[in-house]
Amino acid sequence: MALLDGPLSDAVDAVLGTLEQTATIKRSLKDYSPNSGSFTIDTTTTATVKVSPPSDFTEDQIDGVNILSTDVKFIMATKGISLVPTPEDYELVYPVGGTEYKIMSVEPIQGGDSPAAYILQCRR
Predict the structure, then answer these.
(1) Cβ neighbours for 114, distance < 8 A, ≥ 6 positions apart
(2) pLDDT tens-digit profile of 9-54?
(3) Exposure on the CB side of residue 121, measured as CA atoms within 13 A
(4) Whole domain around residue 94: which residue ranges?
(5) What does the pLDDT look like over 52-83, one tens digit per residue?
(6) Under a CB-based contact definition with an 8 Å cutoff, are residues 79 and 11 in contact?
(7) CATH code for the domain of 27
(8) The model's pTM
(9) Cα separation of 40 and 29, whole Å?
């Protein structure tokens, strides 16, 4: 554990805590059936996380391929959670309007050895 791991994680958690915004990270593991040729949801795991309100990407960040004009980003606190969201099988359910977003990319904000937060690029 690096010197800033604890304090930076605590600071991010405190700032996001003042915003009083939470979301649910949902991971659905899919099982492939060769007989039917389709996927079925095997298990779903959820965790409540502190997040920032969604914000838009700037025009210079939007390339129309990797980042679309309709994509949004969230900052997610890592304190007290054991999951690491990945684009492959995680979704973010934001309670305002109950919107479900597919996580397209995850960028850690490092203060040392462990991420203090993640920047999540999300798409409806």
Answers:
(1) 1, 2, 5, 9, 78
(2) 889 989 998 999 999 998 887 788 888 888 877 778 888 999 999 9
(3) 16
(4) 5-123
(5) 999 999 999 999 999 999 999 999 999 888 88
(6) no
(7) 2.40.10
(8) 0.83
(9) 9
